[in-house]
Write the structure tokens for this entry.
Amino acid sequence: MSVTVESTLSLPVIPRSAAAGVEVQVATSQHFDLAVRISSLIEKAAAARGTGIARRDPAYIRGKMAEGKAVVALGPKGQVAGFCYIETWNHGRYAANSGLIVAPAFRRMGLARRIKRCAFELSRARYPKAKLFGITTSLAVMKINSELGYRPVTFSELTDDDVFWNGCQSCPNFDVLTRMKRKMCLCTGMLFDPDAE
Ligand SMILES: CC(C)(COP(=O)(O)OP(=O)(O)OC[C@H]1O[C@@H](n2cnc3c(N)ncnc32)[C@H](O)[C@@H]1OP(=O)(O)O)[C@@H](O)C(=O)NCCC(=O)NCCS
């Protein structure tokens, strides 16, 4: 019996064409039952990467869905393929698309790009005057943000809201951020400034 390479992998193998069967949409209360799975995906990715991903509990995720500030990607069987949500700061002068996660079986199919584009358009529609920003160590996110018009900036250009930066506490590099007095860290700051467009 011949053994294929795929059959030895622990991850479920989904053909690239399966990405076409994934639906990306603004989440609503209809998606509440997916919050536990999304929270678990984020937690596992944080443990695997060890940096740059804040944990989010299911209640928080449901809150974002209820407010129409979350994007969910559903696989062909209705399973969670990906997720992202919007957060605002400084009374809506800044907005961030946070918590981006793509389930391992759906990675490298262009899904993060689709989710980020949807979250970007939602953010622009809801907060047209807001500066959109993110901090990331992920090359994939840097690529996608650049395509959307974000530019790398120093942390001085981002929100000064303590609540945002306190979200970094679950990152193992938080001591670096604190030592650098929030001026820099291992993440790259990226900003989309609507006034510069
Ligand atoms: C990072 C993550 C969201 C990427 O999702 P994805 O659906 O696989 O990404 P896409 O298929 O849309 O890829 C977009 C681009 O990034 C590249 N890319 C994707 N994963 C990458 C990786 N691990 N390393 C380097 N490049 C990567 C792709 O090749 C593609 O670039 P290209 O068009 O030039 O080929 C996903 O791996 C994930 O959920 N990781 C764990 C959580 C995480 O890191 N979140 C980001 C926190 S800031």
User: Anything to note?
Assistant: Strands lie at 23-26, 70-74, 80-89, 94-102, 131-136, 151-153, 188-192. Confidence is low (pLDDT under 50) at residues 1-14. The pocket of coenzyme A is lined by residues 45, 49, 52-53, 100-102, 107-113, 136, 138-141, 143-144 (CB under 6 Å).
